[in-house]
Design brief:
The protein has 14 helices and 9 strands. The protein has 408 residues and is mainly alpha-helical. Helix 3 packs parallel to helix 10.
């Protein structure tokens, strides 16, 4: 089973990550207690290494109308089974008759509320730095017993809900799991317009709301059709409109994987949000030196080899871009993340602690994916399924210690 749990919103200032960590730790403890009744356990991880294809057929999908409508909508457009092809140490090529392969993915999705007049700068900064956060947090090197990308979840998600086919006349269509289509020039409205113009509707439901009349009456429109359409396009950083609290905009960071421990998840979020806010004010100066395709390139390279990835980075003093190893770039930008958390109002002790965990990962060269690969190589691999089961047990023992992965 793949469980989704929604944490409560927290104020950005003070100790937001400690508050989220406390709630998450309590939730996992309670979920473990409930799962134990049926002999189950909770494992925070990007992709469970012991999954097999029979676990991911159409009968595994939760019996909800929305999921059924979503699958029907994708199949209506695609008209073929889904084919997953991912390179790696043990390349994978497999077909599935439903979108349930996407259910192998688990992530840690964090939302950041953003002022409308700062949205473009914040969103562009998020796009620029997301590959760095992905490089330090990768946690899904195995899928269907194949050793693939350090963050295989990125490739799997894109392919498992892809409405496109191999038809040579359709190669220009936009993927429904995109990194993006360019730097944002006009903020969230531009991103919402992209979603409407570039993608066919999967779930054609209309509300009875007249949003213009709601505005005339002094209210805040729900824009349910827009929100539903946005919910069927899975940008790795997604613009979110919400009518709550008088109406507001958020950036939903979707690239971070689940696990391994609660403190690791908070460190990942702090690093990503800190970098986003730390780069926000200088992003307009950097963009002319960094075409969007370089950011997209970085994203997929980081997903493949995490800290070993050779990334591109804007350089305003020399010929741009420069090439730099992901681990070195993350280390170089830790002060920028620290500055971003300061701007957010995060307590100094909390920021230092969480970014210190990222620094420890960089110093030891240990990410969740690297630990999983290293540990797997030490196991008796005569029977691969048994070795992966042993790997999960070893991983879960470390997770239950509550210690960050850099100490494993």
């Amino acid at each position: 089973f793949n469980l989704e749990y929604n944490l409560s919103p927290v104020a950005a200032a003070g100790q937001p990550f400690s508050a989220m960590q406390a709630e998450l730790t309590g939730a996992i403890s309670e979920l473990n207690r409930i799962a134990a009744r049926s002999g189950g356990r909770i494992i925070p991880i990007g992709i469970l290494p012991t999954l097999r294809l029979e676990h991911l057929q159409s009968d595994a999908m939760t019996d909800l109308a929305r999921y059924k409508a979503l699958q029907a909508g994708i199949r209506r457009i695609r008209k073929k089974d889904f084919r997953i092809r991912i390179n790696g140490e043990d390349p994978l090529d497999v077909e599935c008759d439903s979108v349930t392969l996407e259910g192998a993915n688990t992530s840690f999705q964090v939302h950041l509320r953003v002022n409308p007049d700062e949205f473009a700068a914040c969103y562009n900064a998020a796009q620029l730095v997301t590959p760095l956060a992905l490089a330090v947090s990768a946690n899904s090197p195995f899928l269907l017993e194949h050793s693939l990308w350090d963050e295989t979840r990125i490739a799997l998600f894109k392919q498992s809900v892809d409405t496109r086919t191999a038809n040579k006349h359709e190669w220009r269509r936009a993927a429904r799991v995109p990194f993006g289509h360019g730097w944002s020039r006009n903020g969230a409205l531009e991103l919402f317009a992209e979603s409407c113009y570039l993608y066919p509707v999967l779930i054609p439901l209309c509300s009875e709301e007249d949003p213009v009349q709601v505005l005339r009456d002094g209210g805040v429109p729900g824009l349910q059709e827009l929100r539903l359409q946005q919910g069927t396009i899975w940008n790795w950083n997604r613009a979110v409109y919400d009518a709550a609290a008088g109406g507001h905009l958020r950036i939903e960071f979707r690239a971070l994987p689940s696990g391994p421990t609660a403190i690791d998840l908070m460190a990942n979020a702090a690093f990503l949000i800190g970098l986003t806010l730390g780069m926000k004010d200088r992003i307009d100066q950097l963009l002319p030196a960094f075409p969007f395709r370089y950011a997209e390139y970085n994203f997929y390279r980081a997903a493949q080899t995490s800290l070993d990835a050779e990334l591109l980075w804007p350089d305003l003093d020399e010929l741009s871009p420069r090439t730099v190893k992901a681990s070195d770039l993350c280390r170089e930008l830790l002060p920028v993340a620290r500055d971003g958390l300061d701007r957010m109002g995060v307590d100094r002790s909390e920021a230092d602690h969480l970014l210190g965990i990222i620094g420890d990962r960089l110093a030891t060269g240990t990410t969740p994916a690297r630990w999983l690969r290293r540990t797997f190589r030490k196991l008796d691999q005569a029977e691969r399924s048994s070795a992966l089961a042993d790997l999960v047990e070893a991983y879960l023992e470390k997770v239950n210690s509550g210690q960050p992965v850099s100490t494993w």
